[in-house]
């Protein structure tokens, strides 16, 4: 008789015995039941709908096989997993050895005793194995190794079959696939055990697998696969499967439905035969496997499970005929995060819109490196740590199909060097305009981590000191920058090409030692903005979304507002100067500027425009793109902008009054909402005052960045002219298609090519042949250029569109889609500006608009701040707005709710 059949199967339950069977809280012991079952136990204790189960411990596996361990070790000795035939024979012998091992009577008694008590003697169960690692080896379904499908599982198991199925689970630890898997992963063939889970069988009628992140890239959108019948059909891909892609941005569901002609279910007459594939009822063939309500239920439960375990999960479950949800398994989604890259241009595109040249990209790349190196140093990150991350510092932005993107994976890695990052991670993500679909899956170590408390205390104290001394530090920075920039500009006037190259390197050295204070300001702004939003949400939850924006108006004028007021003042002078507007109506702006420059309209206007360009000439459209001239290079730009204001009735007094009215209205509303709560009102106003203060500092220092890029623009235009004169470039403007180091290296002997002409020609052709724009946010896995997504272009559509409301107000008007502000022509009186993004140079156009809608941006982007500052209803982050909103259409926008309704299209 087979040794597996000699034990009499008990038919009764006497009392619970301790030993091989793990039940209750003992199932949380991962060392005995493995990660797979300990997680099921943890989910059950947290109230998730996990069917009841018990486990046969890993120690039982070890004890049962102890008498045959020498025989097993001999079969494993010299195992060659590259020899398929020999491997199969060895695996067969190993399995037979395990199956023949004697099971102590006490083990069998407790196994059947638990079965009867937990399920009842007539129950049907599933029996699943789980490899448990020892030492450095990890177990099945661990955070580092999914191990999925390697161990055996058995469905529809009756009491009579129970012991045999447990033996077979033990034997599967030595199966061919298990041996190969461990060898391939570099694991040992000896240091493991097998736990066995016995769980009540649920007769599923709709089953699913949910990934709480994209299993291919790690993007945070959920991927849900579902089919008819039990989960085995979905997991093993034996039945047609629907796919649902659920966005984390708005929970929108994109469905790809299969023609479901088959399903997998039990054989009612012969359960022991296991599941079978059968034809599906015809009425179900093209019906979604899951209803909308079931999809949302699964996603909600999946998000909670992910939160429980702190990382993305691969979750299996089923719905029974009565609609009950059962969670059968959850394992970590194993991602190779060192191969993952998160990309976004949600915020950076306002600085570098559309296709960007090699010179601008390399200049910006250097700026980010110097800026953030100093920032991290100010936060207390040791220089040695920064040296180890030099590659990341040089890779904070990427150039993908000619467009600049943040490499967010790098940002997370670098920010994580500061122990204060947990304080500002969420506000950082909000300020960057990051989609919930594209965030890092690795949790940030909490501030309370005992092992890191000394470092956390030191970093937090350092940040507090920065807060106390920040105002003085910013003033010191502004004084320093004015002195350094003036010195470099003076030296550049008489410098030869080599000296210009040396001046550029010198300025970068200076920037790298001081510019980080501007990022400290951004950090303090983020913290105050987060604090103010939390206070508003807690104390005045009934307030409309525009209240926060109104309360930020007023106060000291920052550099951006001063520049705008200067342009409006020039507009007022143009309006008062006879003949200027008439001349502009019939002559190019360049010709009229030449006349003004010769004092043809009096010296007052000419002097005022020269003064503006001297003080503010680096502020213009796309001012951070070195290939785009600014008013300092082309004074006619200033004339063109000011003339637009002059044709209307815009004045400095009107702008200031508009802002003051918004602030007064906000203060009145806040006083009403906080009546009788003076302490709350005082605390909130203090937080808002801090936010206003840091916004002003930010706008002031941002112009310093404009000046830095302006200096670079002048240096490289001069060097381009020199290279063209030497015959090294076909034309001077081709310098924009070379990188900084290629240009500077040509003069100081560090360049790696002499064929600048050929290099520039290749880059110029690439610049003009760039393909369609990539999505705003996406994730790549592996070599980046091999993993870029297909551009997602929506077609124009009617109806209501949704973005991020950032400045309140409901207005109607005519949509004007503007890609290049130079091509707009005359703005209409009821224009609602629709753009991909804006930069500070767009202010003149923004102020001529009744409302503003942009595809990109955040609540702290320039567009949003400007909209709030001047009381213009504004919506940011409305995907593909320039395509979905037809030019000339009548639209209604709600700047608080973030909605745009297309009323009618221009039929002309």
What does this structure look like?
With 908 residues, this protein is an alpha+beta fold. The strands form five sheets. It has an eight-stranded mixed β-sheet. Helix 15 packs antiparallel against helix 16, helix 16 crosses helix 26 and helix 21 crosses helix 23. The termini are far apart.
State the main characteristics.
908 residues; alpha+beta; eight-stranded mixed β-sheet; six-stranded antiparallel β-sheet; 30 helices; 25 strands; 45% helix; 15% strand; elongated
> Quaternary state, please?
single chain
Q: How many helical elements?
A: 30
| Relative helix content | 40-55%
Q: Tell me the fraction of residues in β-strands, as a range.
A: 15-25%
Which runs of at least 5 residues are low in confidence (pLDDT < 50)?
1-17, 792-797
Output mean pLDDT.
88
Strand sequence of the main sheet, in spatial order? 18-25-24-20-21-22-23-19
Radius of gyration: 34 Å
Largest sheet: 8 strands, mixed
Can you tell me the overall shape? elongated
**Which structural class do the helices and strands define?**
alpha+beta
The rounded distance between the terminal residues' Cα atoms is: 92 Å
**How many DSSP-defined strands?**
25
Protein name: PEP-utilizing enzyme
Organism: Streptomyces tauricus
Domain PEP-utilising enzyme mobile: 829-898
Pfam families: PEP-utilizers (PF00391), PPDK_N (PF01326)
């Amino acid at each position: 008789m087979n040794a597996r059949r000699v034990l009499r199967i008990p038919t009764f339950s006497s009392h619970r015995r301790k030993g091989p069977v793990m039940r209750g809280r003992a199932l949380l012991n991962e060392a005995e039941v493995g990660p797979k079952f300990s997680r099921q136990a943890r989910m059950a204790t947290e109230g998730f709908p996990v069917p009841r189960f018990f486990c046969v411990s890993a120690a039982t596996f070890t004890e049962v096989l102890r008498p045959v361990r020498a025989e097993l070790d001999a079969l494993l000795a010299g195992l060659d997993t590259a020899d398929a035939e020999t491997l199969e024979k060895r695996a067969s012998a190993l399995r037979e050895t395990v199956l023949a091992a004697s099971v102590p009577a006490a083990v069998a008694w407790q196994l059947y005793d638990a079965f009867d008590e937990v399920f009842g003697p007539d129950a049907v169960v599933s029996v699943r194995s789980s490899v448990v690692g020892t030492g450095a080896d990890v177990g099945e379904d661990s955070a580092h190794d999914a191990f999925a499908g390697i161990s055996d599982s058995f469905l529809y198991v009756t009491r009579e079959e129970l012991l045999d199925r447990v033996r077979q689970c033990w034997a599967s630890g030595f199966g061919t696939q298990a041996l190969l898997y461990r060898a391939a992963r570099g694991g040992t063939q000896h240091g493991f055990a097998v736990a066995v889970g016995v769980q009540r069988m649920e007769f599923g009628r709709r089953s699913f697998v949910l990934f709480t992140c994209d299993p291919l890239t790690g993007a945070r959108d959920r991927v849900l696969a579902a089919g008819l019948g039990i989960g085995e059909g979905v997991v093993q891909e034996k039945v047609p499967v629907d796919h649902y892609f659920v966005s984390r941005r708005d929970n929108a569901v994109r469905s790809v439905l299969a023609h479901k002609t088959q399903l997998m279910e039990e054989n009612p007459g012969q359960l022991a035969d296991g599941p079978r594939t059968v034809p599906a009822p015809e009425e179900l063939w093209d019906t979604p496997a899951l209803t909308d309500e079931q999809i949302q239920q699964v996603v909600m439960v999946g998000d909670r499970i992910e939160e429980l375990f702190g990382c993305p999960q691969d979750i299996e479950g089923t719905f029974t005929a009565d609609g009950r949800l059962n969670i059968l398994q959850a394992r970590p989604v194993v991602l190779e995060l060192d191969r993952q890259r998160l990309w976004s241009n949600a915020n950076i595109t306002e600085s570098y819109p559309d296709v960007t040249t090699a010179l601008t990209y390399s200049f910006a790349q250097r700026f980010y490196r110097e800026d953030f190196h100093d920032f991290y140093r100010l936060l207390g990150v040791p220089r040695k740590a920064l040296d180890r991350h030099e590659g990341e510092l040089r890779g904070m932005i990427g150039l993908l199909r000619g467009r600049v993107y943040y490499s967010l994976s790098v940002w997370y890695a670098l920010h994580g060097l500061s122990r204060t990052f947990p304080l500002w991670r969420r506000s950082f993500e909000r300020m960057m305009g990051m989609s919930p679909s594209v965030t890092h899956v690795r949790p940030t170590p909490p501030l309370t981590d005992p092992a890191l408390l000394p470092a956390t205390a030191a970093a937090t104290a350092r940040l507090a000191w920065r807060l106390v001394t920040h105002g003085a530090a910013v003033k010191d920075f502004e004084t320093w920058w004015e002195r350094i920039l003036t010195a470099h500009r003076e030296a550049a006037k008489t410098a030869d090409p080599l000296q210009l190259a040396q001046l550029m390197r010198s300025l970068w050295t200076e920037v790298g030692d001081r510019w980080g204070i501007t990022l400290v300001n951004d950090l303090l702004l983020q913290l105050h903005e987060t604090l103010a939003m939390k206070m508003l949400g807690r104390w005045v939850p009934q307030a409309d979304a525009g209240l926060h924006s109104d309360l930020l108006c007023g106060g000291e004028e920052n550099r951006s507002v001063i520049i705008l007021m200067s342009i409006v003042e020039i507009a007022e002078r143009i309006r008062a100067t006879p003949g200027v507007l008439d001349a502009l109506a019939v002559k190019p702006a360049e010709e009229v500027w030449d006349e003004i420059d010769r004092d043809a309209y009096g010296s007052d206007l000419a002097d005022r425009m020269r003064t503006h360009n001297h003080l503010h000439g680096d502020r213009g459209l796309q001012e951070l793109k070195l290939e785009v001239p600014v008013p300092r290079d082309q004074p006619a730009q200033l004339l063109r902008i000011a003339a637009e204001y002059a044709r209307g009735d815009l004045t400095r007094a009107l702008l200031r009054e508009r802002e003051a009215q918004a602030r007064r209205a906000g203060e009145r509303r806040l006083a009403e909402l906080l009546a009788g709560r003076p302490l709350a009102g005082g605390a909130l106003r203090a937080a808002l005052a801090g936010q206003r203060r840091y916004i002003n500092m930010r706008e002031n220092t941002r112009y310093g960045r404009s000046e830095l890029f302006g200096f670079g623009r002048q240096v490289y235009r001069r060097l381009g002219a020199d290279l063209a004169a030497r015959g090294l470039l076909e034309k001077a403007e081709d310098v924009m298609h070379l990188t900084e180091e290629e240009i500077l290296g040509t003069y100081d002997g560090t360049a790696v090519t002499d064929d600048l002409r050929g290099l520039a020609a290749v880059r110029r052709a690439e610049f003009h042949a760039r393909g369609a724009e990539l999505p705003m946010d996406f994730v790549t896995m592996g070599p980046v250029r091999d993993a870029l997504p297909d551009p997602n272009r929506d077609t124009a559509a009617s109806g209501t569109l949704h973005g991020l409301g950032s400045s309140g107000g409901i207005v109607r008007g005519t949509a004007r889609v503007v890609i290049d502000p130079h091509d707009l022509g005359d703005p209409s009186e009821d224009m609602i500006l629709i753009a991909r993004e804006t930069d500070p140079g767009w202010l003149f156009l923004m102020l001529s608009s009744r409302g503003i809608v942009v595809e990109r941006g955040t609540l702290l982007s320039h567009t949003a701040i400007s909209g709030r500052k001047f009381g213009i209803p504004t919506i940011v982050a409305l995907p593909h707005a320039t395509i979905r909103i037809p030019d000339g259409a009548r639209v209604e926008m709600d700047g608080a709710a973030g909605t745009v309704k297309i009323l009618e299209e221009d039929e002309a």
